[in-house]
Structures are given as C-alpha cells and as structure tokens.
Amino acid sequence: MRRNRNAKIVATVGPATTSPEMLAKLFAAGADVFRFNFSHGSYDDHRARFEAVRALERETKRPIGIMMDLQGPKLRIGTFASGPVEIAAGRRFRLDLDPKPGDATRAHLPHKEIFQALADGTDLLIDDGKLRLRVLSHGPDFAETEVVTGGKISERKGVNVPNVILPLSPITDKDRRDLAFGLELGVDMVALSFVQRPEDVAEARKLIGGRAGVCIKLEKPSAIEHLAELIDMCDAVMVARGDLGVELPPEDVPSIQKRIVRACRESGTPVIVATQMLDSMMASPAPTRAEASDVATAVYDGADAVMLSGETASGSYPVEAVAIMDRIIQRVEHDSLYRNILDAVHPEPEATAADAISAAARQVGHTISAACIATFTMSGSTALRAARERPDVPILGLTAKPSTARKLALLWGVHWVLTHDISTFTEMVQTATEAARTEGLAEPGQRLVITAGVPFGTPGATNVLRIARVGE
Prior knowledge:
The protein is of the alpha/beta class and about 475 residues long.
C-alpha cells in the first residue's frame, strides 16, 4: 500500500463515508489520515468509525492517522420573531444581550465577550460575510451599528469579528467533553479551532497532556500576527481557508496561505492546506480546472497534506474526490518544474546535530542515487527533520511506536513501517535493508542512506548516518 507520492491526503469522515466498506474504499483511493469532525455526529458514530479505521489498519498493516477536529466556540445571532428579515445598507441595526426574538431593527447576540472587545468603527460580519455591520457606538451589553452591506438575515447565522482578539477560550465545555471522549478512544491528533494567540495552544496542550498531537487551525487573522510562536508550540498546522476568507479580503488569502506553508517548512512542522479544495465534487464526479489548480498550487509549495472536507463527509462522490486528488498530486510531483520550485525555497539547516545529519542524508542520497533514506525514530523527530529537507528520494520511517507513525501519517514523503527496537549497528542495517526491500523501495544491490540516534531509542538524538547496500 505504498503511495506513489509525497504529499498526503486527509479525508473527512461523515454520513457519506461512515461504513467500514466506504472507509476501506477511501483508503484504497489514497486517504492517509481520517478526520472526525466533532461539530457533527454522535459519540456512537465516532466510536464506530474509529474502530473501523483501526480494523482497516490491522488488515492493511499500514499505520493510519485519526484526527479529531474540535468545534470550538460558535458565535451566532439569536432568533427572529417572524422569520428572516431584510436589512438595507445605510439603516441602523442594534445587537444586544436581550434574549427576545429580533426584528428588522435589532437582534439578540448572546456573546457578551464580543461587546467587551468592540471598538467604534469595528466591522461585524454575518452569515459568512454576506452582511457587514459597522459599530457606531457600544456598551457592555449592546452595539449600535450601521448596515454597510445589506441583505436577508435569518436566525442562528454565524458572526465573525475580524481584526479583534476576543476574550474567549478556543475550548468550550462541549469541546472538553469531546476531547475527553476522543483521548479515551485514542485519537492521534487534535485539531484546535478558533486559535487566536499562544495561550490558546498552551491551554489545549495542558488538557491533552501528551496523549495526542496538537494541530492548530489558522482561521483567525489575529493568529497570523503570532505565526512563528504558534508554529513552535504545535505539532501540525492547518490552513483553514474558509474562515480566513470570511475575515480577510479574498485577495489576501493566497499570500497568507503561502506565508504559512513557507513558515511551516522552515520550522519542519507539518502543514495541511484545507477547505473547498474540490468543493464542486460535492455534486459533480469531476472537479473544476480551477480546483485542480488549487490543489496543485499547495503541492508545488511543498505542503505536507491537502484535505477534503464536505467532499468526502457528505458529498455524492467521496471516493472519486480522493482518487482525483491523488492523481493531481502525482502529476504535480512528476512535473519537471516541481523539484525546481520546491528547492527554490529550501530552508537552511538549523545549527543542530539532527539537522546536520538530515541535510547530509539528503545530499548523500542525491549524490549516490540512493533507493531511499531510512530513518529510525521513536518520538518522530528524526523523520520530521528528514522530511523538512524534502529529499528527492523516498523516506522510509522505521519506528517501534505505532503512535508515532499514526501521529505523523500526514508527514511529507514518509512511508511508515512498524518494526522492533534495535540495539546494535548490525541490527540497524539489517532491519533497514530488509524493510526497504520488503516495501518495494529498494532492489538487491541498491544503496540506501540510514539515519538514527545513538544510544538507540533516545528521542531527538539523531547523530548517525550510514550508507548500506541491500543484499541478495
């Protein structure tokens, strides 16, 4: 089941793909990580899907990552007395804490934190930015606004407050219950919504306690101001372009995406590009040319993974969506321009032994035309540094810890194999060459580059590089 590509695919599981048979089809089509969206579905649904993925893992003998995506705080307006109302540009509209149903002049906004953070002139976006209100005056329980962009407004529509840091934790009471359930199941990665500042990630890490990796979803412009610090604090990053596209002008999103991907590549942190990648495949068996180009751009930029959301969760063509995404990635990575573009922004090695060894492994692998680079790792740090180099030969990740392989199933270019603990150099070479041959990465007589840490089994101690030849 080795993929013929480096970038990975994250597929969201939902009503269209909840059965074990459909999950198996998604995996066969190219899904490497399954995302469980806890904004939807019951605990029984998630448990059944989890067990189906783990059964598939045992059947295919390949580590599969499971990511739980927390809902986070959902900011919404209240109800309306007589259904949807039309509000025209230039009119006044009041938002307040009064729970009475709204009308054409006012609406309930049950979030005191928003009123606490407002300033005169702040814009409020309703219904994914379809309506725009500008704050004229405000108090601790109200905001008088002018309608800048009018239209129809109906109950429970979402509210965005761009360019404002709200005094809200990204983890609600519901998220805490969901997180406890997911960690009990044994998810590999937790995606954290509504990240605004480093303190949000610190809070999540404390709750998770090392039982899973932390993936931050960058969907608030305020988070971009703390980009470097946030990347340092997490295990993976998701470019959540849906909410970014609401709070930022659409023309700003592409450059922000490239900035995030480049920053993650420099730090060696896995990065996922997500949202509306093949959105037309919700109802069509083929994507638009623009969508294919969107996926390709993320791959050319060197993203670790690209993600499908509604396309696989509730779309009419979930397997086809994964299959075409797989083909797009392969086509890009076989393009003669791909390597030139990838290497044009190649980050310099950091001044550490691990980076020195990983950079040398990349160079040696290229110089001797190695079949692959084999990396022994316990914590995953050796594989992370190897992938940061974006070598032009495959990476074989060897670990005795299934949790490491699952957590890093979205890591660029790494084909994971579970193995036993090693204790000698002879065992290191034998295990690596046998795995490379068994997995179809090397033929007898070919050479491979091996990196590891000595003493063996010491996390983060990459300090050995060895060239070995595959025996007959």
